[in-house]
Design a protein that fits this description.
123 residues; mainly alpha; 70% helix; 0% strand
Length: 123
């Protein structure tokens, strides 16, 4: 489709103008905001939970506790991000006229056609 990054920029600009570079900004903003909330918010929560479970041995296993807390938080963060990434990718990669170019129209279209499974197919 594109021979280089510069070629891609030229073709997008020629076909869609500057607006072509902003397609999918809203799902990206919401999705990564939720992912950040999930990643950092739940990491802090899980650290306290696992520290409480280990009790006196918490200091001895602190690194492992941080690792497990981080992994658990990332799973939640990915679940929060996935629907928004699925929506953004469909908006950006669908042929003209086959899928809406706005999140407001795209979300109900996926939900109606595939339900929640349509948003989590890539997870």
């Amino acid at each position: 489709m594109y021979t280089s990054l510069g070629d891609g920029f030229k073709k997008i600009h020629a076909a869609e103008g500057l607006k072509g570079f902003t397609l999918g900004w809203f799902p990206t903003l919401v999705g990564y905001g939720l992912q950040g909330f999930g990643k950092f918010g739940f990491y802090e929560m899980f650290k306290d939970v696992y520290k409480g479970i280990l009790g006196e041995k918490a200091a001895q296993y602190q690194t492992m506790g941080f690792l497990i807390s981080s992994a658990c938080a990332e799973v939640i963060a990915d679940v929060l991000l996935c629907p928004w990434e699925a929506l953004k990718v469909r908006m950006q990669t669908s042929d003209e006229g086959t899928f809406p170019k706005t999140a407001r129209e795209g979300w109900p279209k996926i939900m109606e056609a595939e339900g929640w499974a349509g948003f989590y197919r890539g997870l």
